[in-house]
Structures are given as C-alpha cells and as structure tokens.
Amino acid sequence: MDAPNAIAGTGTDLTLAGDVTPSEYAWGYAIRREWPDGAHDLFGFTPDTHTAIRRLHRDRSFWRGGPVRPTAVYLVPTNAAEVDGHPVDGCRRSECPDSPQRGQR
Q1: CB 78 within 8 A of CB 100
Q2: pLDDT tens for each residue of 13-48
C-alpha cells in the first residue's frame, strides 16, 4: 500500500493523496536560459527537485567554457503545460515563467 501523499503516475494522471490532476498541469521546475539578445529558453520540466538541480548544474557546466554563453541559467517553478507549449527558439514573451520565487498552487 502506498504511503499517504505518495505520488503515483498512471500515464496520463498524477495522483496525490487521492486528488487526480492531469499530468500536464503537474507543478515542478524547469530551466530558464537567458540570452544576451533578450530571448530565453524554457525546457527540462521535472516535478522532482533533485533532478531539477542536477539538470541545472549540468546545463551551467556545459555553457561555462563555450564561446557563446547565456547571461543567466536558473530554475523556475512552473507546470508541465507551460513548458510543453513554450516556443523552442528565441522566445521573448513576457508572460513566461521568469522568477525563481514565483509561488506554486
């Protein structure tokens, strides 16, 4: 039997203590990468904090030695739907998740 508040994925649903939520609205973290020209990338959604931090460190280390570098790389709280619907290249929308302090539901 699962422990209280355990998360179990069923493919399309995420169950949290008996509450059913579509997985695309599951909250977690994504990496936001800012570019010198004002564009940004938003990718790598995961509901797991440790996985998000590991991905953040890996992305920062990849760009550290390159000739072209982002101006900032950081985690933002968001949901899977926002990341899935995000443009792949050169987004400049102001409504995209951009604050590490933004609250979750």
Answers
A1: no
A2: 444 444 545 666 789 999 999 999 999 999 999 999
DSSP track, 67-80: SS--SEEEEEEEEH
- The per-residue pLDDT for 104 is 41
Of 18, 16, 14, 19, the residue nearest 6 (C-alpha) = 16
The amino acid sitting at 16 is L
Read out DSSP for 35-53? Answer: -TTS-EEEEEEES-HHHHH
Contact (Cβ atoms closer than 8 angstroms) between residue 48 and residue 26:
no
User: Over the chain, what is the mean pLDDT?
Assistant: 78
Computed on alpha carbons and rounded to an integer, the radius of gyration of the chain in Å comes to: 15
pTM above 0.85, yes or no: no
Kindly state the helix (H) or strand (E) to which residue 15 belongs, with its residue range. Answer: strand 13-16
Q: Tokens in use for 58?
A: 């890996």
d(CA 104, CA 102): 7
